[in-house]
Amino acid sequence: MLLKFHGGAQEVGMSCVEIIGKGKRRILLDCGLHPNTGEIPKINDKEIDEVIVSHAHLDHCGAIPFFKFKKIYCTYPTADLMYITWKDTLNLTKSFKEEDIQKAMEVIEPLNYYEEKVLDENIKFKLYNAGHILGSLSIYLEIEGKKIFYTGDINEVSTKTMKGADTDIDEIDILIIESTYGSPLDIKPSRKELEKQLIDEIAETIENGGKVLIPVFAVGRAQEILLIINNYMRTGILKEVPIYTDGSLIHATSIYLSYSEWLNPKIRNMLETGINPFGEIKKADDSVFNNEPCIIISTSGMLQGGPILKYLKLLKNPKNKLILTGYQAEGTLGRELEEGANEITPFKNTIPIRGKVIKIEFSAHSDYNSLVRYLKKLPTPKKAIVMHGERYQAHSFAMTIWKNLKIPTYVPVRNTILPI
Ligand SMILES: [Zn+2]
Ligand SMILES: [Zn+2]
């Protein structure tokens, strides 16, 4: 049996692993697009029997509309969320057509966690909660006597929206694990500290009569932020001001609400007592430009397009503030602002930046300590393969695995073919 790594190899982006069985069956685990370069995996879709998608982020499902697959497996929420990811990509890049999205939707077979799916007498798989975003999964695949566990993107720690990743798994021969924060230097502040920072920064601006702009990723980050802000307003710690939203996060939040049984049980409890954890979703209108303090939450998270761009002119006013909530890739407007740009030109006119710009990173990934805990909770595999991390992170984490488990560990480069 062979594993071929098409992407996500010493990089965060374009995750895609092909499993080629002795019986010539070919299964693809994820089929992502590279968010920085727009690259897609070099695969022959006619040869692929099925794709299993770990979650609805661009770097895991974004390349699917570029191909014609026979069958796509994912969870129920991922099926709905992928539609948003693909629509956003279509609007931004026009690199495929609406019909391509429809064709992909037609071949999706959604599954539940822990449901066993038998493909033939030699291949079956089961999906586990990965704790990363709504519907995110890890795959336990038994193929021709080998037991492969592909983690996908994981968060071992519970967040406001998600329960932490499952680790109660049967024995594993080959572990394919992500390493976004795989270096011992990647220790992140606790969720509690991050929440406090966020609320303090918002409170400061509101008290000064300013407005807070929060760019977010539509799926996952937006809902975490909405939940935190609404929680603090409900308990009276944060003064109530209007929260306006814009972009595809509005649709994504409605999907989060309709799959509440897939979320952190605390959310279900709130819904049962009549509380909407995400608050009332108010679409932004011209009143965001009046003189009243407010909070504006909008896509896109790295300010590469999306309705957030039209609110950036508010940053001319030193009273207003921009809070970046996630990683800002090189070459994005978000990165420019993070690095202290004095002016930006999102459209025709240049905007001087007089308001404060800060970053409070709410990651949906395990940090280094959490990855190590996760590794120790899983049954010890016979071999490990480290993916989905920049070069330094992937190699550091491979060292960590070797030190802790003393098992052969590989860090593939793109297009590596590994016999297993
Ligand atoms: Zn992800
Ligand atoms: Zn990812």
Q: How does this model look, in words?
A:
With 420 residues, the chain is an alpha/beta fold. The chain folds into 2 domains: 2-185 and 364-419, 4-Layer Sandwich (Metallo-beta-lactamase, Chain A); 191-359, Rossmann fold (3-Layer(aba) Sandwich). The chain is 27% helix and 22% strand. The protein has helices at 58-61, 76-93, 98-106, 191-207, 221-234, 249-258, 265-272, 308-311, 333-338, 368-377, 391-405; strands at 2-7, 16-20, 26-29, 50-52, 72-75, 108-111, 116-120, 123-129, 137-143, 146-150, 174-178, 211-215, 243-246, 282-283, 294-298, 321-324, 343-344, 351-352, 356-359, 383-387, 409-410, 417-419. The strands form 4 sheets. A 7-stranded mixed β-sheet has the order 6-5-4-3-2-1-22. Strands 7-8-9-10-11-20-21 form a 7-stranded mixed β-sheet, covered by helices on one side. Strands 14-13-15-12-16-19 form a 6-stranded parallel β-sheet. Helix 11 (391-405) links the parallel strand 20 and strand 21 (409-410). The radius of gyration is 21 Å and the shape is globular. It starts with a strand and ends with a strand. The site of one zinc ion (ZN) has 5 residues, from helix 1.
Shape: globular
Bound molecules: zinc ion
Q: Radius of gyration from the CA trace?
A: 21 Å
Q: Name the average pLDDT.
A: 96
* Assembly of the depicted chains: single chain
Q: Which percent band covers the strand fraction?
A: 15-25%
Spatial gap, N to C terminus: 6 Å
Uncertain residue ranges: none
Question: What is the CATH level 1 assignment of the largest domain?
Answer: Alpha Beta
Q: What would CATH call the architecture of the largest domain?
A: 4-Layer Sandwich
CATH topology of the largest domain: Metallo-beta-lactamase, Chain A
- The helix count comes to 11
Question: How many beta-strand elements?
Answer: 22
Proportion of residues in helical segments: 25-40%
Structurally, how many domains make up the residues? 2
Name the CATH superfamily classification of the largest domain: Ribonuclease Z/Hydroxyacylglutathione hydrolase-like
Strand order of the largest sheet: 6-5-4-3-2-1-22
Instruction: Give a quick account of the main beta sheet: strands, pairing sense, barrel closure.
Output: 7 strands, mixed
Structural class: alpha/beta
